Automatic annotation (TrEMBL):
Protein's name according to its UniProt entry: Assimilatory nitrate reductase catalytic subunit
Keyword 4Fe-4S belongs to the record: yes
Occurrences of domain Molybdopterin oxidoreductase (ranges): 79-515
UniProt domain 4Fe-4S Mo/W bis-MGD-type: residue ranges: 9-69
Domain Molybdopterin dinucleotide-binding per the UniProt entry, residue ranges: 617-723
Database matches in Pfam families: Molybdop_Fe4S4 (PF04879), Molybdopterin (PF00384), Molydop_binding (PF01568)
Superkingdom, natural source: Bacteria
Amino acid sequence: MSRTVAEPVRTHCPYCALQCGMQLTPGPVPAPDAPAASVSAPAGREPLPVVAPRDFPTNAGGLCQKGWTSATVLGVPDRITTPLVRGADGELAAATWDEALDVITEGVRSVQAEHGPQGVAVFGGGGLTNEKAYTLGKFARTVLRTPNIDYNGRFCMSSAAAAGNRSFGADRGMPFPLTDLGGAEVVLLLGSNPAETMPPFVQHLAGAREHGGLVVLDPRRSATARLAADGQGIHLQPVPGTDMVVLLALLHVVVAEGLADRTYLAERTSGWDDVVRSVAAWWPERAETVCGVPAEELRTTARRLAAAAPSRGGRGAYVLTGRGVEQSSQGTATVTAAINLSLALGLVGREGSGYGCLTGQGNGQGGREHGQKNDQLPGYRKIDDPAAREHVAGVWGVDPAVLPGPGLPAVALLNALGTPGGPRALFVHGSNVLVSAPNADRVRERLEALDLLVVCDFVPSETARMADVVLPVTQWAEEEGTMTSLEGRVIRRRQVTTAPGEARSELWLLAELARRLGSEVSFPTDPAVVFDELARASAGGVADYSGLSHARLDAAEDAGAPGLFWPCPAPSAGEPEHPGTPRMFLDRFETPDGRARMVPVDHVGPTDDVRGDAPTYLVTGRVLQHYQSGAQTRRVPELDRIVPEPYAELHPQLGLRVGVADGARVRITSARGVVEATARWTDVVRPDTVFMPFHWSGAGSVNRITSDAVDPISSMPEFKVCAVSVSPAAHG
Ligand code: SF4
């Protein structure tokens, strides 16, 4: 028996942080009492039809190629449908849930007995729902009692998060609705390429493009930079690793030409005088000698930005950062320089202008608010704050003293695996670190040194294939929950179909593991109930969800409000419901004195800078068709056919100099190792730079040679730039 549900279901794309609205129309849905086997064969399942409604303001009817084909991934032929356990023969083989969970329970107990609670570590993902991210953090701290939990969001926007927390006392990627950008006269995009990574975003740049005010900072003439260069703005093309110098020079011009908003600075900020001193040495002509951007372009940009500021009668200006400036060993300082510039012009905490970060992963924002980070508890609370520990411990029903303190951040955690004193067992949830982590060959070595590797995934990713136990989990259209978009908009993810075979939600498997490991802490498995607990845990924190629930989000959407913005505290008795906070900082910043902190910063340069034996910059990035490690999108034939393999972009001058022809195989060598790929000659890259997207494994997996040096404040790895030599491949 099957029932047919004709009504389309509103949900959101599973991929990036734009969380485009979409509708899925369910096909035949198995009856609830149907045996699992009758729904277990994903191969050949027809993908659910995807429709892009116009009423979700972020994408307004647009989707990118990833979004249009997102339903295909649910039914890929190699979808994992049963638990897998590695046998004595070294092969992964199908097992029952009981068998798999027994292996894990025994393995965890054994490691804990020998190495203590910190011997078990957890690596989460920025694609998990809020409910799953919250439960994972709670499981790590109350069941495993390990401090060692972090997640792949550390690789995504952690520098912007650290800078936002320091300057504003809060980190909400965009503290204003995305639609606010539409009327802006100038948008300064720093190291972001939304025309390729999130194409529906580009519609919100219409106002800036119309006014010739789209300014893109990128060493590569990306698809977004080409929009700016097309008479609709300015493309600033710095030497890789010198974004900070551009920003210091822009602020120098603002100071030198009296363009700062002195009233705003006096009323709403602290630290201005120190920041003025810090940019004195970066006049445009000097900056040009380091960053390569012509001095006049720097002056023009600063003047355009200042003229668009509302306080000077302009139509609005926004400064937005992306991975290009954040994935750096000076990432927090570079974002701070962008924030200082924004504050100097009085852009932040005003309608019609602002600073924001374009978070990348689907739930990169929510994933960092609910306790997956090594140093945080739900509500974006600090784990070493006694009041925060007491509040969250109260919600969890445990003694605050049992909660561990801060653990290792992602790169340090991965590098410590299997080392003396380091974790011996690892849970990985929704992350493919063998492709997405820097210096990935070293990560492979560390994973091989573990006593127990457990991977929860729905496809056999490169990391899953190394696991001792693989647990098949539900995905996206198979589950209920919430996500938080890059705007801080909390939205509903809805179930449209059932998961194949034995796949189960992480909420269920973590509850089951908690029980088997003897925990008395309650782990609800209904996502709505988990959300209610998450909301209570977040109450009073910076990211306060306590006024939200699945029911309220559903009702708001039915009433035409698709999602509500945090902070959204629960009302006091007799008070109306809080409406949510689309725009933050309008009255005050979340700092003790309510003022934004301006922090002086200076340029240091990349950790792995070019030199005689490695004279070329390597810059990494993304392509339209693939998402993150490519574990999902490489399995979509329509996407894979367009970009099926790694490639390296070389300027023709570089190709000629090193003897690598267009279409030939090229070898790229860094201090970490060697990769090979097909060379593509193009003048979108600088003659001193080679560019590679990072979505593949194998010989062309560029993260095998990227640097795992990290930012000292955010622990963000320096993905974006390192020094390499370029030569013909042996069989090129
Ligand atoms: Fe999905 Fe992002 Fe593409 Fe929108 S832009 S369809 S959220 S991948």
